Amino acid sequence: MAVAAESVVAVPDWFAGAVAELPEHREVEVDGAAIHLRCWGRTGTPGVVLVHGGSAHSGWWDHIAPLLATTHRVVALDLSGHGDSATRSRYPMEGWADEVMAAAEAAGIDGQPYIVGHSMGGRVAGVVGARHRESVAGLIIIDSPFQEPSEEAIAWQLRRTAKTYPSEEEICGRFRTVPEQDTLLPYIARHVAAESVRKTDDGWVWKFDPDMLRKRLEHGRIPPLEPLRTGETPVIYIRCERGLVSRERASEIAGLFDRPATVVELAEAGHHPMMDQPLPLVATLRTALAQWDSIRRRVRADRGPEQCVTHPADMEHRHCDQVPVTVGEREFGSDTYGVGDERPLAE
């Protein structure tokens, strides 16, 4: 992992401005656990829920969410066992999916939300789409491999022990992403690391449940996904060019959904694109949301409020043409496009 020195990479104005837009913090109780939310944008407007990856937290989106909140109500939640949310005795994927939908309602999103999930959060987003398919407008999944870890990987992680550190400086200096990647922009890594820790009576610790993996296992393994019966919900799969997922695997993942996902390639991005390619990631998300919003508005205008529909997919049933949108130099709007488990661990 290469993190450039601060003297080499100055903090850009866009990042400083984004993190200066402090979120509104809320909590919602879901199945007996307090779930922490960060919210941006106006309540009562169409919205987006951002879902972090494994052992990460809502602060990973601090510099992304404000750039989406100019047009949407945006909420990033800490899944239970992560960040500032409560822990549980078990962490079934279905429970996390219910937390996502509760976050959308508690944040004041109007109508069906779009769900954006990164890595493990993409897996959660897929379950949201299947479990609550009549209640979501669209899914965007970022570089999620949709594969369970091997027995060897599980055994290795279970042997790890949680550590406590004497100072904030020392623990933040140990911040790593899993998997590691070639480049992390230092101002982003520093911000996320500072949001990833808390002080206890014994010292500084990471803000995730150290027993999370053990609490997710059933018969010694992560339960496999049920079929993703997402109906007509539109899905975009963002494959990071330098991430975990090959083009072939991305195509396989696209076919897991009832309505096959559109695959978008994010050029030069590692598995954690908010860390190395944040602005191309924002541009891709904005383009997808703008296209879907445009379709929804056109359907509403044609049908009238009494027949209002929310799925962008409904446009296809009316035999309307898709609206191609150009991102960079390639067309966005038909099939596969290209545009130009994140765990902060001590070791």
From TrEMBL:
<dbReference type="GO" id="GO:0016787">
    <property type="term" value="F:hydrolase activity"/>
</dbReference>
<dbReference type="InterPro" id="IPR029058">
    <property type="entry name" value="AB_hydrolase_fold"/>
</dbReference>
<dbReference type="InterPro" id="IPR050266">
    <property type="entry name" value="AB_hydrolase_sf"/>
</dbReference>
<dbReference type="Pfam" id="PF12697">
    <property type="entry name" value="Abhydrolase_6"/>
</dbReference>
<dbReference type="InterPro" id="IPR000073">
    <property type="entry name" value="AB_hydrolase_1"/>
</dbReference>
<protein>
    <submittedName>
        <fullName>Alpha/beta fold hydrolase</fullName>
    </submittedName>
</protein>
<keyword id="KW-0378">Hydrolase</keyword>
<feature type="domain" description="AB hydrolase-1">
    <location>
        <begin position="48"/>
        <end position="283"/>
    </location>
</feature>
